[in-house]
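Q: I'm writing up a methods section and want to include an example of the input and output format. Could you take the sequence below and give the corresponding predicted structure tokens, formatted cleanly so I can copy it straight into the document?
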Amino acid sequence: MSRTKRPTWPWHGLTALILLLIGVGLWYSTSLISYEWRWNRVPQYFAFQAEDAQRAESVSRVEKIEQGGRSAHVTLVAEDGKQQLLSVASDSLQFSENDDVDEGDVVGVQRHWTAGPLLWGLWTTLWISVVSGAIGLFIGLFAGLCRLSKNPTLHDLSTLYVELVRGTPLLVQIFIFYFFIGTVLNLSREFAGVAALALFTGAYVAEIVRAGVQSIARGQNEAARSLGLSAPQAMRHVILPQAFKRVLPPLAGQFISLVKDTSLVSVIAITELTKSGREAITTSFSTFEIWFCVAALYLVINLPLSHLASRLERRLGQSD
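A: Here is the clean output for your methods example:
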């Protein structure tokens, strides 16, 4: 006898009701402090129209102005007969035909769209996350295998590295890299920030790799060795492929944490997403709006990464 499938729409309705109550609670909280929402100030921090002033190179006369839609093409003739052609926005034109123009006078401006501070901060967060994540993955893989090594020196050094990094705050490590190691070796703040994040990530990846390899039955390694594979070959072709399927979820979680940890490099004046948000707040006075946008941009990075890891995990699970 088949069981009747229970409808799920009441639960979805309850979810929507909870979210609605959270929104109402947020609105009510801001009304208590008389906060005025100014979302109209936010778009300019994503993209805005920059203006480049077009100036006369020498004392000249406006010989001709040709209007073409929103642009105006201005021909200036200097005293020595040299011509200068300028293209400016029509509504910014400061002179008429036959007007005299002094050297350095602004004839008009050219407008073009450019990325705002939040987009530049997002780009900085992305490239720092990718570079430090790739380096951290390599460091973690090497350190994790060293933790499993029978060589006492490799085991002891990798254990010291993992315990030292995991036992101290990331913020302190960033300060040490920038103010001490960076000063001694004359490193840029970007290099110091990426190095600190990579070593921090590598320590956690090392433990993930170690646990993943140890979760594989010992008989797998023994079977590979009995087939004539060397220890490195058995690790590469037999153990690591199986371990990768098991460590994928914690690895994805670690890299998602890395994206959020990049906000800490703002303390050494790297203008990533969080620092860009703080700078936008100082000029817009739209505190809540900017922080909500910053949080949404972090979600834009992390949600696809989490979804991709889940799909890859399902595909790998089907291949067993």
